[in-house]
Amino acid sequence: MALSDKEFNDIIEKFSKLCRKSFSETLRDLCSEAGIEFKLILSGPEKKEILKVLLKKDEFSDLLEDDTKKKIMEWLESKRGGRKKRESD
To answer: What sign results for the dihedral spanned by CA atoms 51, 55, 71, 78?
Structure first.
């Protein structure tokens, strides 16, 4: 199951508070570390790259609840970027 935009934004917001930076400044830094172009609206695969960068940070893993960590790991292991599959007729 994919993370919703709100869940993703909440994760970035928590990390930005830890770093004492604004949301956009934190997202810009994470995009840079992930090697992707900074923008406020990211695709599923771009969000996955951001989360991979975050998971490598020790201070970040202490911020999340276990169920959120599990959801992130399941999403990262999924083949899709996060969009819901459409049923073909």
So the answer is: positive
Report yes or no: 2 and 80 within 8 Å, Cβ to Cβ.
yes
Whether 43 is in a domain gets the answer yes
Domain limits for position 16:
5-76
Per the domain annotation, does 34 fall within a domain? yes
Q: What is the pTM of this model?
A: 0.75
Torsion of CA 69, 34, 47, 55, to 10 degrees: 0
At 32-65, the pLDDT tens digits run 999 999 998 999 899 999 999 988 887 777 777 7
Residue 43 backbone dihedrals phi, psi, to 5 degrees: -80, 170
3-class state of residue 62 by DSSP: coil
DSSP element (H, E) containing 21: none
